[in-house]
Amino acid sequence: MELEKPSFDFIPKIDRRPTIPEPPPVRVIAVDDVSLAATAKEATKLDAFYVGLLKFERDEKDAGFVYKAENVRLRFAIEESPPKDDMRVLGIEVPSLRDLELLLVDRQLEFIKEAGLFVGQTTFLLQDPAGHWLRLGEVRRIV
Questions:
Q1: Who's near 26: CB < 8 A, 6+ residues apart?
Q2: Which of 67, 74, 94, 98 is the most exposed place for a label (fewest CB within 10 A)?
Q3: What is the 3-state secondary structure (H, E, C) of 43-96?
Q4: SS3 105
Q5: pLDDT at 16 over 80
Q6: Distance between CA atoms of 47 and 65, rounded to whole angstroms?
Q7: What whole-number distance in Å separates Cα of residue 98 and Cα of residue 82?
């Protein structure tokens, strides 16, 4: 497909405005930043999980393990003792559950596929390397 040649002289103007980087494709279901705990042993696996698998961005400005989503940040406090068992589930919206399912199976990570209340509504329930429960759902944006 080719563009039609204009009937007049056209010289595009260069846009000198600074570009705004795109936000990460994931969204955390939270009002404000989320603080979680992890041990030093588990912290080494957090980057591969949150950045490599779920497509968060690592926030290099903050000290420690901080991951940026579209709307909030996940902050991990590194502790010496294992954190208490916490059964609260953190909701995360990802662009495609189908693609994520292939990655989870490929990496041999255990997850539970949950059927929602509505037809076609599916979520995945799994634990991150620090043992925190995550419910991953797909967001379908209207364009």
A1: 54, 55, 56, 69, 70, 92, 93, 94, 95
A2: 98
A3: HHHHHHHHHHHCCCEECCCCCCEEEECCCCEEEEEEECCCCCCCCCEEEEEECC
A4: helix
A5: yes
A6: 8
A7: 33
- What are the chain's domains? 27-138 (3.10.180.10)
31-46 residue pLDDT tens = 999 999 888 888 889 9
- Category of 39 on φ-ψ map: left (φ > 0), alpha (ψ -120 to 50) or beta: beta
Q: What is the pLDDT of residue 12?
A: 82
Q: Is the pLDDT of residue 68 over 90?
A: yes
